[in-house]
Amino acid sequence: GGSAGWAAATSSSDAAPASARRFGVAPAGAVQPWVTQKEPMTEAELRMEERWLEYRHRNIADQMAAEERKAVLRDWSERRARVEEEIARNCEVSRYQSELRRRGYGMPADAEEDIEASPVHPSSSSSPPTARAAAAAGPA
Questions:
Q1: Coil, helix or strand for 69?
Q2: Distance separating alpha carbons of residues 29 and 14, to the nearest angstrom
Q3: How far apart are CA 80 and CA 74, in angstroms?
Q4: What is residue 39's DSSP assignment?
Q5: pLDDT digits 0-9 by tens, 6-57
Q6: Is the dihedral of CA 47, 52, 54, 55 positive or negative?
Q7: Distance of CA 80 to CAs 19, 70, 73, 86, 120, Å?
Q8: What pTM value is reported for the model?
Q9: Which has the closest alpha carbon to 93: 85, 104, 103, 81?
Q10: Taking phi first (over 0 means left), then psi (-120 to 50 degrees means alpha), and beta for anything else, what does residue 36 get?
């Protein structure tokens, strides 16, 4: 009865394709018998829609705030890591420098005192001490 009429109407060339009928979508200007004409909203429906919109706006604002907090926290943690690395480098540098200072050259306690000049022998001015000692010992 009624289904044959509907099948004939849907199989005609001006009807929506099967995928459009399946998903409830029809070409522009096509009559959609399964969609009723929208009646004006009641006062309760208007308030409910306003509450829903407020909820969605609040939800979106909360998401944006959470993303901003996450970004700020990420930036802060990166800066903190850089500062901690610099502190560690400075500690290492000061430790190395203080060790170098301890190992550094220090003047002897008697550096300010004059010492006696060593006597210079006229025959030994050009020869090293081992050759001088060998010459003094005589021929071998």
A1: helix
A2: 11
A3: 10
A4: P
A5: 444 444 444 555 555 555 555 566 665 665 667 888 999 999 999 999 999 9
A6: positive
A7: 57, 15, 10, 10, 69
A8: 0.38
A9: 85
A10: beta
